[in-house]
Amino acid sequence: MSEAHAARSEVRPAIDVSRASKIYRRYSHRKQFATLKSALLTRSLIANLRPEETFTALSDVTLRVPKGRTLGVIGRNGSGKSTLLKLVAGITKPSAGSVRVDGRVSALIELGAGFHPEISGRENVFINGIMLGLSKREVARRFDEIVEFAELKEFIDAPVKTYSSGMYMRLGFAVAIHVDPDVLLVDEVLAVGDEGFTHKCLDKFADFKRRGKTILLVTHSLGLVERFCDEALWLDAGRIKGSGDPVRIVGAYLTDIEQREEQELAAGDTRARESAGLAVVSPDEPASAVLPDNPVESATAPADMFRAAEGRWGSREVEITDVTLAGPDGQPGHVFQSGERLDVRIKLRALLPIDDFVVGVGIFNAEGVCCYGTNTGIEDLAGERLVGDAEAVFSIDALDLVEGTYKLDVAVHRQDGYPYDYHRLLHTFRVKSRAKDVGIYRPKHAWQFSGDISFIDPRTPRLPRPDPPRHD
Amino acid sequence: MLRNLVQLPRYRGLIQSLVARELKARYRGSVLGFFWSFINPLLLLLVYTFVFKFVMPPPKGTDPYPLFMFCGLLPWTWFASSLMESSSALISGGNLIKKVLFPAEVLPIVTVTANMVHFFLALPILVIFLIVYQAPLTAGELAWFPFVVLVQYVFTLACALILSALTVHFRDIKDILANLLTLWFFATPIIYPYMNAPDIARRFMNLNPFAHIAISYQEILFFPGEFGHWKWLVAMAVLSAALFLSAYWIFDRLRDSFAEEV
Questions:
Q1: Which CATH code for domain A277-432?
Q2: Fewest beta carbons within 10 Å, which of A160, A190, A450, B103?
Q3: CB of A109 less than 8 A from some CB of B
Q4: What ipTM describes this predicted complex?
């Protein structure tokens, strides 16, 4: 960003945020509704900030967006994206630093914020347009276009309170986009209508871009940032964590998310295992310590295997002491890429030699659907001898599952099903995928076309595709 | 502050359309629609007239009593409802302040202006009363009428700006205000004439800005003879202008906190 900026430094940037911070006052519950009395008593009629009562939404953010560029702002919830947008829009002032914007700004923050429910769509269009800085004549000139864009021709004279929320938002969007700003601020508003409308909005943005307008886009749709933005800015806890090439920033952001998920899943797994009494068994501890005298009693499996909740049962004559998942690099982890290699390492321990055993693995998705299950018995591996410490590794060459969270069943039991140690849904992992395909299983596949059929290259910024349809 | 104040005329179009929207929306869906602007003060007048005709005798020197009371009651309704509504204007318009780049002072201005339009809409009833009772009007006195309205507008606006800004921070102002207005109503010579008050009370009344506005209306429209209260009115005009500037200053100081506190 800095090089690009240096090259254009003689031109005034459209958006110039310099070391801006935004500190919000945070009230304790008692002070939530400040009363006149308390203010008079504490003599804090105007802003009496004490450090423990503040919340830093943005801290020391500097960014410059040259005219005609599109900047995508990404970050987790609460990272300060919307605060940044409000600062640029001029709705709030920075607590420190400065914000300067060159040209007319239109902020698509809350659509139809100024609509009055009792009066007609037509009147609301006029008032909203005037609020956003147009003159009455300018609204009149754009009126037909606005109504057509909102697809509300038949309803424009009905009071806005009779509109569906989709109609309401579409009308708000249509007005805001027809203000013809020099700088357009967009805050995650593309979830406004059906796919046709979303396409229309994206076309309109592309049109803005072509005409050299500056766009600041706050979104969770990373694909949109990659395809549509010239630059990306990654905010984390109010600070800039990275900025520059969208593909690089989105990649870094995704990696960070994976790491956090990894930590969360690891913590969750530990909790699940502890409550099932697994991780507490240290490798040095003899398994006989947990081997009960009457193994059959605790060895009963739930009646309905496909309904059972997570848990652990079995006689423990053979014990699963540890289960780790490892990706292609061999490192244990909890987040894996779809299509990559996955190893499930199962550490076993049998105090006495056992000759009747089967090791099994089952993969379940978040809805509890069994995606795949197998065991050594099914695959004609007859157990011969197991004693002391051993390890079984269940290797999947290509993890062809769609994105989602999955849980593992890991078990060792007799051929007749009598369980030695059954771990039910105790091990969680997540599959990540850049493709947002749906279902459970992703077969290796390819498309082939013949005849007069062609597709737009998805890498061209002209027509960014929105997120795929939801199948519900 | 001055820079913002100078910008104010630029929002004329916005204020106009918002006032129009306010008026349209208020009676949308009611059968009588705009007639409520006449009917409301008329009904209020009937209640007071009933009380002072049949329950207790009207004060001396106020015959015909309905006309006397109407002269003070209409401006008071404008004033009181402006203050009540503007105390919540910023909060109910919170969406605009938080989500749209919007000059916040427009909201109390719209409230006061919309109530002024209601006042104007009720004036024909006053005119009918004036004709029916053959009130002693002179052109010289009537010329003062627009000036009184202007003074009241500026004064109300000043109060509305302060109230709307402070209520954002202290929600209890709304409740305090409701009671305060009742007290203020009886402390102002509206249902009784100024002359009837004892000396000491009159001295206090001179400190009540709205008393001078009410007295001015009554002298112009009701009491025969010259408009003797004009000096007070001019003083009120100066005071109102100064108050407006200070109110705007306070409003401007608090402006940045609105988007966060609303």
A1: 2.70.50.60
A2: A450
A3: yes
A4: 0.77
